[in-house]
Amino acid sequence: MPMVLNWDVIKEIISYTKLPVILKGILSNDDAKKAIEVGAKAIVVSNHGGRQNDEAIATLDSLTMLSSDIKEKIDVYLDGGVRNGADIFKALALGAKAVLIGRPALYGLAMNGKDGLVDVLNILDTELKECMRMAGCKNLADITLNSISKK
After folding, report:
1. Domain 7-147's class?
2. Domain map (residue ranges) of the chain
3. Which of 30, 96, 112, 140 could be joined to 78 by an S-S link, Cβ 3.0–4.6 Å?
């Protein structure tokens, strides 16, 4: 009989370790609240590349729907759709603590191994710094929602 994965099972798994548990695949405020309730230390806003469901919400859209109190109670990371420094800037401005890059890293590795990966990371770094400069942000802590919205 297959195991059913639900919040009670996740809470039990978390009880077995002192290591911080990070839950990936969180796309709603309700699930983020449940992650906090069961003791997760961080969440990864991710639609797993959208491959499981063609109608999955975009990760940046999901990140915008997380309430500020969620972002204050648990570390939030973003995974999916990060292709350039502007994407990183937007994710940070929307409250992500960090972003995960999958495909860009793989593309760099496929093109030129370790050196290709280093190139990708350098390009992302340069693009992020350029976005920061244009927005008047001297450091990462300066990046806020006001950096991207005209309210």
Report:
1. alpha beta
2. 7-147
3. 96
